[in-house]
Amino acid sequence: MAAQQEIILLENITKRFGGVTALDDVSFGIAPGEVHAVVGENGAGKSTLMKMLAGVHAQDSGQIVLQGTPVAIRDPLDARSKGISIVFQEPNLFPDLSASGNIFVNRELSGRGGRLDQRAMDAAAQQVFATMEMDIDPRVKVKKLSVGEKQLVEIARTLQARSEIIIMDEPNSALTQHETDRLFELIRHLRDQGITIIYVSHRLEEVFAIADRITVLRDGHYQGTWRTTETTVPKIVEAMIGRRLEEAFPVRPLVPAAAEVLLEVRDLTCGKIGPISFQARAGEILGFAGLEGAGVENIFRVLFGLDRVTSGEVIYGGQARRVRSPVEALKLGWGLIPANRREQGLMVEWSIRKNTTLVILDKLLNRLGLIDAAADRRTTQDYVGRLNIATDSIDKKVINLSGGNQQKVVVAKWLASGPKLLILDDPTRGVDVGAKSEIYRLCDQLAGQGLALLFTSSEVDEILGLCDRVLAFYKGQVLREFKRGEATKSDLMHVIASGANGNAGRANSFI
Fold it and tell me: Residue 45 above 70 pLDDT?
């Protein structure tokens, strides 16, 4: 691609932080009107590069060429004046301001006498929402909006500022599938209008669905740029981590048919979901595959006492159990790693230490009934070491960790409770490939210690690569059970997407 065709050209960009080189001689170009994905593991340098384009950081050497002209981007306001805006992973909004108020922050419209012209701002905000085909009231306070709607307000702000280049840094990490679908429709709409999108994500299947080209960074070095039509997920993963995708999954021995049954679910129903029946054995990773709304999340919520059972039985340790709350689940020795770690799994403004020992404080009391500070710190340090959580202090706030390390803190919290049954709801969501590999190895280790793991993921490859058996859900029913190696990705997707190749209840013949 010739230089004159590129809206952004990065030439020999190097950036150091103290003795650490975050970017080392990185060069590549981005074409106007394309969705250009930038991928890599945590620490690969992609966030540093995006912040450089957004005016947060300045390069130590090399140059940024914008529309054929070398530029120095001094700060975020300067970047915006040059037509570059960024939408961060977490919405950067003022919760008590209206949607229109947030859109016009630092660019407020004024009328006669210099007074704020709220009507004009509301009208302009309404116009940009209409362009986006989004139904958001410009007068509503942002704190009343969903996470997805907040992200849309962020994007609306960039559009109203007439940005020609929009950087999206993990914009859908906390979105539902429906909100993600809406976001992707909007991205395609913006691309068709000639706006350039730089898209940073860990979700490679989504990257292939939305991007025109993909650039890979690894350890601060440029690995290459490929058209999505001319490469594959395994090739991109290999460029990201230096090894093939299949090598990320541990080789696990088969779980013997005679292994102890830790959990048995019989004809369980909750609302319109069910009846569902299955068994989970000690040392087994049991996979649950289904599209959003198929019933997997409902079953997990019921098992952990978050939702009520309509009918059926849950047998654990040879006894029927009625789990009415997470506290009761915890007493049984069960743990849940939720899909939304920030809202359901962590106190993000708390430290790593406080999060790690949150559910075991009663086990850390001294003779006076007070928390034993030394035991508290010792326990946390142990799990930080075991899970390789990257931090310089156990008192560091969780919100300041990467997504992968935040997820490890959630895992640490539940491992500290000494569970026998662990429910993992999309545990690798929003984490990089390297962190995913560590989570796979951890699952293997826990199963090797005799735990039963109930596992689901938004990535079918993970379910097939990690699990001993897979239950395929469709519209509240289990249609098929696949043993390890029995199904290809296409086989499993065919069942969960169309309900074909199976009959309800077939999975109830246990191995």
Answer: yes
